[in-house]
Protein: Nucleoside diphosphate kinase
Amino acid sequence: MTQRTLVLIKPDAVRRGLVGEILGRFEAKGLTIVALEHRAIDAEMADAHYAEHVEQPWYPPLREFAVSGPLVSLVLEGDEAIAVVRLLNGKTDGRAADPGTIRGDLSLSNRENLVHASDSEESSAREIALWFPSL
Ligand code: CDP
Ligand code: MG
Structure:
């Protein structure tokens, strides 16, 4: 089933010069980029994106990280794209993520973990509408 998923290449990845490396992995897998933007976000946008997490004790430092510099937002399309991109990203905690995944190969942090991807069809629809309202 062809799906679309919302991906963020987070500020740590932009600072570290890993945008090309990360985009290359998605393209090499066969996923199609259907929208892409380099932008900075404010706290309001961070809160909207992370609505499910705003009450977490670890949310204030996450918000600070999310607004700490530019990021790249994109929509990827392909067969089973939502699950496939979560697999390519790897587990949330870069220290525990499997080698071969983006986080497993390139992140040593539970917060600065380089990438975000929608986790369900519902979140994909919500996040694509939030980040790319014209799609
Ligand atoms: O991004 P993912 O769906 O894998 O993880 P999440 O549980 O939905 O958490 C969202 C984001 O919050 C993570 O990707 C981390 O950047 C951050 N986080 C954090 O800062 N501290 C935690 N204890 C857990 C997550
Ligand atoms: Mg999540």
User: Anything to note?
Assistant: Helices lie at 11-15, 19-29, 43-49, 59-66, 81-89, 102-106, 121-131. Strands lie at 2-9, 32-39, 71-79, 115-117. The chain has a mean pLDDT of 98.
